Protein: Adenine DNA glycosylase
Amino acid sequence: MLQQFNISAFQQDLLRWYETSKRNLPWRKDQDPYKIWVSEIMLQQTKVDTVVPYFERFMNQFPTVYDLADANEQEVLKVWEGLGYYSRARNLQNAVREVVATYNGEIPSSPDQLGALKGVGPYTKGAILSIAFNQPEPAVDGNVMRVLSRVLKIEEDIAIPRVKKLFESYVKELISKEDPSSFNQGIMELGALVCTPKSPSCMLCPVQEYCKAFAEGIEEELPIKSKSKKQKTVPYVALLICNNHNQYIIEKRSEKGLLANLWQFPMVPINEIGMDHLENWFESEYGVSITLNRKQGNLKHVFSHIIWQLEIYEARTNQQEVNDDRLKMVDQETMDTFPFPVSHQKMMKYIG
DNA sequence: AAGTCGGGGAT
DNA sequence: ATCCCAGACTT
Structure:
């Protein structure tokens, strides 16, 4: 497939550039498979700069697989708070417990065993195998598809799973057998620093001479990617319910779905319930009698596939305790120990 | 193949 | 506003 392409020269130019240009990142200090694993999970759909402080805190709190396996899920979610895609954290802990139980705490270096772990998909499997275990396995992420779609001028839709497999087959041919770790990280680093989505720095590119897209002046047109449809807006009334001891009602979200097992202030889907029936509905749903008070403001929160439009209301209750399993009455200091999504962290600013 | 699952930064 | 980020899982 790669006729008239000087693979070994390409490898050499890429590896030389990576050696001198790579960023100093906390998971690059050694080849600890656990650190590589944690970093790769955090880096899914997340930029390096965002991940670094989370990675430092996470490794500080859970230095080994045993520490993570022994932790409460809520502790793990609290460290993950604000990073998003929280199932990553839950799957990671699930998988680490599997490693402790089944593999005596040793992260497996076999592709099948690694890929069977929860949350370890094709990309992460290849990343761990190549970076931690020096195996020449492809690790195709968005960076790799962007770089190679330009270098090789691949004009197929990268959103199609079949096309991603095509890129994996190309990487299998291209990857350095001597240093698969630096090769995979080098392409990704190139995509992050030079071969960027918009206005790539082709003049600084170490593999410019191999790039078909640059030769034809179409680097800005690649990769081809079909557009995702826009999100739907869902309106809620979100309630800051306070009793006369300055305690607030918080609610644990479902163990499945969006923001699973995180905490929030109670939210009422207002289109379904109606403002007039809000207090009655809340009483019948949660067994808590409340009185709606002043509106405190609006908050719009954008997710990948939906948009929350939150109307924030203050409310009062005379109860000192709650019976519903989902609910807790807590003061502000205690509230800080629970994992909240960012939208509800912003709501806390309306307290007091 | 399409939908679900966060949040932030760059443009 | 739109895109996209070191993607995986479910249906």
Remarks:
- Residues 39-48, 50-51, 85, 87-88, 91, 118-124, 127, 139, 141-144, 184-185, 188-189, 191-192, 197-198, 225, 227-228, 230 of chain A lie near DNA strand C (CB under 10 Å from a C1').
- Residues 232 and 276 of chain A are 24 Å apart (CA to CA).
